[in-house]
Write a structure and sequence with these properties.
The protein is of the alpha/beta class. It has 3 domains: about 170 residues, FAD/NAD(P)-binding domain (3-Layer(bba) Sandwich), CATH 3.50.50.60; about 120 residues, 3-Layer(bba) Sandwich (FAD/NAD(P)-binding domain), CATH 3.50.50; about 90 residues, 2-Layer Sandwich (Enolase-like, domain 1), CATH 3.30.390.30. It has a 5-stranded parallel sheet. The protein has a 5-stranded antiparallel sheet with strand order 21-22-25-24-23. It has a 4-stranded parallel sheet with strand order 11-10-9-15, with helices on one face. It binds flavin-adenine dinucleotide. The site of flavin-adenine dinucleotide has 35 residues, from helix 1, helix 2, helix 6 and helix 8. Flavin-adenine dinucleotide binds next to helix 1, helix 2, helix 6 and helix 8.
Length: about 425
């Protein structure tokens, strides 16, 4: 009898798991269950939709017939509420039950609701799902001013989208710099200045304590007592692994679902991949969750292959992000904030808007990097990323410097057909 594969989620991890399964099993029945409606879309591209640079159609990364051509069926608008691990069934909100031989949990992240007084009484927007983006875009069409609560990655993507719509922004961030998870202090200070130079009001070391309706506007109160009013509020105070469907203890959960090097949970037929999975870290003995698209793809592919009988080892998560925000290209890799015993190679200190830092461990092995500058320099981060994954030594680079790529040199290398 063909194996029954059930995948919860219809995004990076689950889509790649289909590929992974099909590499090893052409016959098995694959069922993709998603609480959202429609074929898969790019979460990464949502800010471009809000900014009016992409249409809803542009966001789609699959069409409905694509599932059938891979021998998969897509169940839409069905929320998995619980998993019966012993009985090997998933329970749906509609009351149906779906049996599985192998299960992948690819439920991603969910947004964290901050403890702000009055939050539930005022209209506010998150930026995580397609529905969120549609709601944010509608509100932005009528707004002239906005507050973005949280200056992390998603907050800054939302801020960038609203800025492109010429909305006057105030960003409130509790850390002393913007993007505190992505940048070290040096790059963080430069980025903060770049955002302020664009006319954005940024309140760092600040907390929003209350929101209240004032006619059509929203009054924002900060912890220090400052108040101001805006037309719309965006909440971007972080995300956490979406583990609701296993809250009955179906599998072991720490921060995320704990998986081994094959992406299997403590139940041998239940796997997890992507933002919801807590894996071994590539650089340390710790466990980690890197909520980024490439990680979800890599894990999904390996999990799918292993569900279909392969023995593909996942080498561990490695942080990586490259993004252009407020006319600055930013990139971060691995352990970019040096730890005890690490050595820092400062290649550029920030003069002329260029900041390049490489971190090596006590053995001289590359472990991290930060880049802030123009788009030309970001390509070298790809080289450093591969070098970290190959555990290369810093001395291995010619003259102890990473190769510098420019847009022109990269284009020159691309084979033309
Ligand atoms: C605005 C934005 C911009 C981003 N930009 C970048 C970027 O530039 N670079 C980058 O690397 N990463 C970026 N990310 C992060 C990236 O999108 C995620 O890391 C990635 O989508 C994780 O993929 P996933 O498959 O693990 O989970 P998700 O993409 O979160 O998908 C989870 C899926 O599970 C479904 N689901 C959840 N619970 C249930 C349930 N109980 N029953 C049924 N279905 C369920 C959801 O509907 C969804 O289909 C961005 C994220 C956002 C929101």
């Amino acid at each position: 009898m063909p194996t029954r594969y059930v995948l919860i989620g219809n995004s990076a991890a689950a889509l790649e798991a289909i590929r992974g399964i099909r590499k090893h099993d052409r016959e098995g029945a694959i069922t993709v269950i998603n609480r959202e409606e429609g074929p898969a879309y790019s979460r990464v591209a949502l800010p471009y939709y809000v900014a009016g640079e992409m249409t809803l159609n542009d966001l789609l990364i699959r069409q409905r017939p694509d599932y059938g051509s891979l021998g998969a069926s897509l169940v839409e608008k069905e929320n998995v509420t619980a998993i019966d691990a012993a009985g090997k069934k998933v329970m749906l909100a509609s009351g149906k039950k779906v049996e599985f031989d192998k299960l992948l949990i690819g439920t991603g992240s969910e947004t964290i609701k901050p403890p702000i007084q009055g939050l539930d009484q005022v209209p506010h927007h998150y930026l995580w799902t397609l529905d969120d983006a549609i709601g944010m875009k509608k509100a932005a069409e009528k707004a002239q001013t906005a507050v973005v609560i949280g200056g992390g990655f998603i907050g800054m993507l939302a801020a960038e989208a609203l800025r492109k719509l010429k909305i006057k922004l105030t960003i409130v961030e509790m850390a002393p710099i913007l993007l505190p998870q992505l940048l070290d202090e040096g790059a963080g200070k430069l980025f903060l200045q770049a955002v302020r130079d664009e006319g954005v009001t940024v309140r760092t070391d600040a907390l929003v304590s209350a929101l209240a309706k004032k006619g059509d506007a929203i009054e924002v109160t900060l912890k220090d007592g400052t108040t101001f009013t805006v037309d719309m509020a965006v909440v971007a105070t972080g995300v956490k692994p979406h583990v609701q469907c296993v809250s009955n203890g179906a599998v072991t959960v720490n921060k995320g679902i704990v998986v081994n090097e094959y992406l299997a949970s403590n139940h041998p037929d239940i796997y997890a991949a992507g933002d919801v999975a807590e894996t071994k870290d590539f650089l340390s003995a710790d466990r980690s969750i890197y909520a980024i698209w490439p990680t979800a793809v890599e894990q999904g592919r390996a999990a799918g292959a292993n569900m279909a009988g392969a023995k593909q080892v996942y080498p561990g998560g490695l942080g990586m992000n490259v993004v252009e925000l407020f006319n600055v290209t930013l990139a971060q890799l691995g352990r970019f904030r040096e730890g005890a015993g690490d050595d820092v190679k400062m290649l550029n200190q920030g003069g002329d808007g260029l900041y390049r830092k490489v971190v090596v461990d006590k053995n001289g092995t590359l472990v991290g990097a930060v880049y802030l500058g123009n788009e030309n320099g970001a390509a070298e981060m790809g080289v450093i990323h591969s070098a970290i994954k190959r555990r290369e030594k810093w001395q291995g680079f010619q003259d102890g410097r990473p190769p510098v790529f420019t847009y022109a040199s990269v284009m020159h290398r691309v084979p033309r057909y």
